[in-house]
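Researcher: First entry.
Model:
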Amino acid sequence: MNHLSICSLIFLGICFSLLAKAQPSYDITDKEPALYNGIEYGYSIRSELKKDIGNKGTFKRYEVTFYVTNKSGCTRLFFPRQTTLGLQNQDLMANFDCVNATGARLTSKTATVRARPFLVPYSTTTKNAEGKEIVNTVQVQAGHMLENGETVTNHIVVIVPDGEQPRMRVRIQTPESNVR
C-alpha cells in the first residue's frame, strides 16, 4: 500500500470517529421541552417587551430562563473525559440556541447550562516537625453531578423580529454515568 492510501484511511477513520460522537439536537418550545435519558431540557419566558429600534423597525425583547432537570430517578455523574481539545467544558450539560435571535444591542443568541461540581474527600498523612502524624483531608473535584430532581438554570436576553416567538434548539451533552 502506498503512503497516500494509508493517509486517506487514517483521515477517514478520524472523520468517522468524530461523527460517531455527535450531540443529540432537538427543537423545543416553552411548552414542549426535550426529554433525553430521563433529563428534561427546556426554557421558559420570564418577560416580553416590544422595542422600537430606530430605523431598523420593531422587535421583541425576551428574558428567557433555560433549565435542565433530572427526572431519571437517579443521580447523574459527569466524570472528566478526554476530548480532542483537552479537558474543556467538562461541566457542560446543554447548549441552547435561539435560531431567530438577532444578537442586536449586546443580547445573546446562545446559552449554556452547566452541572455543579462533585467533590470527594481525600485524606493524606504527613508528619509535623515533632514527628507526629497529622491527617489532612481536602475536598477534591471528581467530576460534576446532577442529583435526582435537581434543576440547573441560566438566564439570557434575546431580541427577535416583531411578531415572532423565540425558536429554540438544544444540543445535549450526554452524561457519563448513572448512580442509583
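Researcher: Second entry.
Model:
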Amino acid sequence: MLKQNGRGATEYEASVRTMRSGSRMALAAVALAAAAAATLVPSAAAAPANAAEACTGWRVIQVNNNAAGVKYRECDRYSGLNTQTRAEFYIWDNRHDGKVAQVYTATGSNLNGRWHQTWEKFYAWGNESHHSPLVNTGWHKGHDVKVLLKAVRG
C-alpha cells in the first residue's frame, strides 16, 4: 500500500506473512510490488519538475513617487490535480530617505471569494545604487500570488 509520510514523501508499506512453503513466492511478490511502487513515486509527488509551467508577463508596483518599486511575475505549474505557484521579482529602493523597500509575498487560492493562504514571507532591500538580485520564492501550493510593497523605516 502506498502512503504519504509527514514530510510529504511517498513510502511503500508492505506486510507479508511468510510460510515455509510460500516464502519465496511472498518475497517475489514484495519485490514486484516494491518495483511497481518505485515507478509510481514520481507521478505521486506534487507537481514534479516536468509539470506544465506558465508565467505571466512582468508587472511593476511603485510607491511614494517611485521611492520604492518591485517588478514581479507569477508562475504556475500543474500536474493532475496539484497546482503550485511562485513569484519572481526584483526590488528597488530609489531614494536615500532612511526607508527601505519591503515586499510581502503570499501564495494561496481564492475559493468562493475567500482567500486561503498556504505560505507567506517578507523581503526587504535598501541599496539605492542598484536593484536586488532576482528573488524566487520557490514553489508553494496554490493558484495565486499576492505581492504587496511598502517603503518602511530601515
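Model: Note on the second entry: Residues 2-44 form one domain.
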